[in-house]
């Protein structure tokens, strides 16, 4: 089996897949230097984080303004491009960088400290807004379920005013109102 680059060797000892993936993101952000502050975990990996593992995903979705620099680091670290993903088989890591810009408010991104490094995760309201859009515009029942789950579990800590404004802008206000009524009942 191929040896791992020194930067990734600590990952092998992390048994929990969520922690391994998040620490990988922190390592990638760190490797990018100042550009690393623009790496943000989104999608299923963010959902897995906010649901404390109740949602499971196999890949890490990132937005990264400096996508070419991130790709350069992934290549240097031995990741292989497979379709839209970069894969590191030994560490069971799949990485996708679907966009360079964050669909949400950068001021709401949460910074998480993990093993002495920092990583950034999309704000929970913006993640909920994303799930609401998928539920309404793509008819995704799974995304509707996870939007409802996040609303119920994070309810009191959410910025409801911001969420309602996003929903009004996105055409998802009706669904948000419906889900809010269900969790309040």
**Major pleated sheet:** 5 strands, mixed
Radius of gyration: 17 Å
For the terminal residues, how far apart are their CA atoms?
55 Å
Shape: elongated
Total beta strands:
7
What would you say this structure looks like, in words?
It is a single chain. With 185 residues, the protein is α+β, with helices and mostly antiparallel strands. It has two domains: 117 residues; 60 residues. 46% of the residues lie in helices and 18% in strands. The chain has seven helices and seven strands. The strands form two sheets. A five-stranded mixed β-sheet has the order 1-2-5-4-3. A two-stranded antiparallel sheet has the order 6-7. Helix 4 packs antiparallel against helix 5, helix 4 runs parallel beside helix 6 and helix 6 runs antiparallel to helix 7. It is elongated. It starts with 16 loop residues before the first helix and ends with a helix. The model has no long low-confidence stretch (mean pLDDT 95).
Give the tags.
2 domains; 185 residues; alpha+beta; two-stranded antiparallel ribbon; 7 strands
Short summary:
The chain has 185 residues and is of the alpha+beta class. Helices cover 46% and strands 18% of the residues. The model has no long low-confidence stretch (mean pLDDT 95).
């Amino acid at each position: 089996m191929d040896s791992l680059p020194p930067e990734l060797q600590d990952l092998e000892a992390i048994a929990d897949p969520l922690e391994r993936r998040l620490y990988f993101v922190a390592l990638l952000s760190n490797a990018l230097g100042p550009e690393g502050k623009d790496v943000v975990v989104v999608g299923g990996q963010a959902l897995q984080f906010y649901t404390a593992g109740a949602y499971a995903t196999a890949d890490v979705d990132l937005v990264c303004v400096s996508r070419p620099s991130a790709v350069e680091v992934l290549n240097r670290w031995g990741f292989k491009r497979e379709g839209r993903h970069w894969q590191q088989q030994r560490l069971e890591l799949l990485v996708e960088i679907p966009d360079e810009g964050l669909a949400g408010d950068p001021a709401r991104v949460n910074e998480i400290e993990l093993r002495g490094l920092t990583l950034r995760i999309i704000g929970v309201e913006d993640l909920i807004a994303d799930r609401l859009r998928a539920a309404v515009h793509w008819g995704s029942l799974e995304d509707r379920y996870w939007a409802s789950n996040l609303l119920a579990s994070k309810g009191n800590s959410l910025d409801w005013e911001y969420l309602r404004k996003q929903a009004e802008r996105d055409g998802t206000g009706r669904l948000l109102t419906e889900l809010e009524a269900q969790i309040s009942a």
